[in-house]
Amino acid sequence: MATTLVHIGVRATDIAKTIRFWRDGLGLRLVQVRDQCYDLTDGYHNFRVFQHNGPSRPAHVSGMLDYLHVGIRVPNLEVTAQRLTEMGYEIFSDGLNGKEPLAPDNLEEGAFKVEDPDGITVDITASDDQWPGTGLMAT
């Protein structure tokens, strides 16, 4: 049996905003809610969102200085970019000087980035070969 990535978990400052981003903005399916834990999925991987109930958190470092980002493949890059923009999120590219804003109808790089409500950078593509290994079958 091969090792398989099955679960990623994040703690959200505002659970409603975070679920709206991942479910409505990016299209992950909500499959379970239990004890303030929201389980979303792409059909292969579980993405659990917890409500953060601890002390105030420091601002998240994002852009080229991020220490965490998540990669997502979507069926249509332009439609996703437009939807996120309409939801109030800025889409951008990481240039040498940090964030460079992008227009949803001008995605020449074939990918874009967006931050979730807690500042987690999400790298979005529609390409099947953006990240090495994603097409490999577990053995």
Helix and strand arrangement:
Layout: E1 7-12, H1 15-25, E2 29-34, E3 37-41, E4 46-51, E5 69-73, H2 77-86, E6 92-95, E7 98-101, E8 111-115, E9 121-125
Parallel strand pairs: 1-4, 5-9
Antiparallel strand pairs: 2-3, 3-4, 6-7, 8-9
Query: Mean of residue pLDDT?
Result: 86
CATH H level, superfamily name? 2,3-Dihydroxybiphenyl 1,2-Dioxygenase, domain 1
Helix proportion of residues, in percent?
Answer: 10-25%
User: How many helices?
Assistant: 2
* Chain oligomer state: single chain
The succession of helices and strands, N to C, reads: EHEEEEHEEEE
Which percent band covers the strand fraction?
25-35%
What is Rg?
15 Å
Number of domains: 1
Count the strands? 9
**How widely separated are the two ends?**
6 Å
CATH architecture: Roll
Structural class: alpha/beta
Largest pleated sheet:
4 strands, mixed
What is the class in the CATH system?
A: Alpha Beta
3D shape: globular
Summary of the model, kept short:
The protein is 15% helix and 33% strand. The chain is α/β, with parallel strands linked by helices and 139 residues long.
Throw out a few tags for this protein:
33% strand, 139 residues, alpha/beta, 2,3-Dihydroxybiphenyl 1,2-Dioxygenase, domain 1, 2 helices
Q: How would you portray this structure in words?
A:
With 139 residues, this protein is of the alpha/beta class. The chain has a single domain (7-53, 60-125), classed as Roll (2,3-Dihydroxybiphenyl 1,2-Dioxygenase, domain 1), CATH 3.10.180.10. The chain has 2 helices and 9 strands, in the order βαββββαββββ. The protein has helices spanning 15-25, 77-86; strands at 7-12, 29-34, 37-41, 46-51, 69-73, 92-95, 98-101, 111-115, 121-125. The chain has a 4-stranded mixed β-sheet, with helices on one face. A 3-stranded mixed β-sheet has the order 5-9-8, with helices on one face. The longest helix is centred in the N-terminal third of the chain and has 11 residues, at 15-25. 19% of the residues are buried. The model has no long low-confidence stretch (mean pLDDT 86).
